[in-house]
Amino acid sequence: MGSKRTKPPSSKATLPFKTGNKFKRQDLHVKQKKARDSLRRDERFRRKREEDKDPESKRERLAKNVPTTIDKKRVWDDIDGDGLDVSVDVEQLKRRRIEQAEAAEQEAAEVDDVDDDEQDSMLGSSDDAGSEEEEDPRSAKQRQRAPSNAPSTTSTNLDLTPDSLALKFPSLFSDIPPPIPKILITTSINSNLHQEAQLLCSLFPNSVYIPRSAHRYGHKFSVREISQFATNRNYTAVIVLKEDLKKPTGLSIVHLPEGPTAHFSIANWIEGKKLVGHGNPTNHYPELILNNFRTPLGLLTARLFLTLFPPRPDLQGRQVVTLHNQRDYIFVRRHRYVFRDKRASEKSVVGPDGQLVKGVEDIRAGLQELGPRFTLKLRRIDKGIGRAGSQGEDAVQWQWKAHMEKQRTRFNL
After folding, report:
1. Is 55 helix (H, G, I), strand (E, B) or coil?
2. What does the alpha-carbon distance between residue 266 and residue 413 come to, in Å, rounded to a whole number?
3. Rounded to whole angstroms, how far apart are CA atoms 205 and 207?
């Protein structure tokens, strides 16, 4: 057995000395891991004591140690277009077009000024100084515009919808206020997902579930026939829940009366009663939060979900439905919130600039999940009612393909 080393244990988890005894090696490895964890703990507490005395050093450390995630590495298509197959940030696209329009107006104004100067020089104007003083404020106004800072939240702004998208789907993007939604929920033929369909009825207000049977003496209604039936009875949407091995695997949303139709795949379905500390939903209209839908395809998806919820929620119910898009996966959650007093062990609410938010220093928000909880992924967008009800070369507006995920930093929504 060799002599012990006096150096501290290295970070590569190498043993202080080698031995042929397996149990001795295991014991040495455990001791070294504890010593390494102890050193890290002492370093962490030492840094905390120093930062308590000097808060500025903590801000500098946090400013440098920003984790690099795939979302921050997101790349956009270098195309000045607003189609569904283009991954462009609609906010940056609109800002770029505004800047181009302003630049064109400025060039036209400069050309007019040059023409005026030539005419004045021919006439021998004597107030050149006054003209320069008049030009300075104009140029100063043009220089005042600067790119705005990044938004503090990831909320979806539907006012940035491109005009081409509104022209392609006029029934979805209309200036007329949408009616109160009335939704018909059904399943695939001979489905066993009756309980899951009832849960969707509690998630989407003003919805009714009608089972879909394929009895030997019954008529097997297609989605187009069901949509026509619903349109005649003033329904605004049809939702078809699909299953595989008695589990929900797909969701199709048909916007009535003319489409479009969005097809999603479902993953990680969890009922509300299986969530730890869950609550029971009420019949109040929930609030809706749409997060991180930034491309034209994302705005189309967000607008489709917006038509499924009433425009005026019941605030006394304190229920909120969140659809959070991250890396093209839409996480659907439903919570009940409450504003309560801050406990002594809790911290105050901090804004995006790292400073305390004034007026709510002693208030915190509590959340209770109601369920169901599931994840959606967009697979296809049809122009009409399903693929059979869409005609023309642009029948399938967008469809997911495997090669789209080859570049991990490019997203569609």
Report:
1. helix
2. 17
3. 6
Residue 101: its H or E element:
helix 90-123
Residue 107 burial (C-beta neighbours within 10 Å; 0-12, 13-18, 19+): exposed
CA distances from residue 173 to 166, 319, 360 in whole angstroms, order as listed: 5, 26, 37
Q: Is the Cβ–Cβ distance between 90 and 162 less than 8 Å?
A: yes
Residues 262, 397: Cα–Cα separation, whole Å:
10
Q: What is the pLDDT of residue 122?
A: 53
Six-digit token pair at 373?
Answer: 């909880």
Structure tokens at 272: 């509300």
Please give the Cα distance from 200 to 385 (Å, whole number): 21
**E-strand stretches of 258-341:** 261-270, 287-291, 319-326, 329-341
Cβ contacts of residue 40 below 8 Å, gap of 6+?
none
Question: What CA–CA distances, in Å, run from 404 to 361, 379, 400?
Answer: 45, 12, 7
Cβ proximity of 268 and 223 under 8 Å: no
Facing residues of 378 across strands? 264
Burial of 202-217, coded b for 16+ CB within 10 Å and e otherwise, reads: bbbbebebeebeeeee
Two tokens, residue 241: 């829940």
The two tokens of residue 376 are 């959606």
Phi-psi region of 195 (alpha: psi -120 to 50; beta: other; left: phi over 0): alpha
What pTM was computed for the model?
A: 0.78
Q: Coil, helix or strand for 3? A: coil
The H or E element that residue 135 is part of is helix 128-143
Q: Which residues of the chain register pLDDT less than 70?
A: 1-17, 114-153, 389-390
